[in-house]
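Subgroup meeting minutes
Present: P.N., E.W., G.H.
Scribe: E.W.

1. P.N. recapped why we're keeping a running log of single-chain structure predictions: easier to compare across weeks, and new members can see raw inputs and outputs side by side.
2. G.H. added today's entry (235 aa).
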Amino acid sequence: MCNLYTSPIEQEVWDYWNVSGPMPPLRFFDGHHVGPKKQGQFLRADHATGGLIYAVGRWQLVPTNWPDINTYPYATNNARWENKVRVSRTFKPVWQAGQRCVIPIRNFYEPCYETGSHVSWRFENADGSPLGMAGLWNSWIDKTTGQVFDTYTMITINADDHPIMKRMHKPDPNDPEKRMVAVLPLQDQQAWLFGSPAEAEQVIGQWPVEKIKATQMHKPKPPPAVVPDPQGDLF
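Output recorded in log:
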């Protein structure tokens, strides 16, 4: 699972992913720590042009028919690939609609308890390039005002046999399974965003150990809670 990551600056997202259209005037993602229910960046497919649409949304996927975005009680910032994405009431409609996204990340944090206490580790690409996480997105509409709020979730997969990620998180005898986020190599992101469901499924896999730079460190303080801004059409 993942509950804290660092977002790259908007210019880096534009350059690395070759995003089309004008860049939004706001700049607030340089080194910005993103936690559940906070605002983060994601990229989705523009099927009309074959390009990418830049979006900012709440890191907690909320169903369209939920009455109030701020009262959704479930931890849907992560979506279990094996038994949730294609079957749960929250994720299944989004998956069936093809609402897949890539979440740009500079690095992310996971806890390790091998010392007997919480020790935070930071993970990033060994070559210094930004990470692209597999995700799903949805739009929630305020029925009173008509305002649109984008939301998103991050795909997680089994990590029981991953040499590094199996060491993360507090041991739980009632739920011994270890999880990790689904990192997409740049060359596979096209299939995830634009491919058929079968093609998208083929690119979900474990992050290769040789691609990982892992650093032991103290956990950074998450940002304060903020109310999400309405998301209009950026283009």
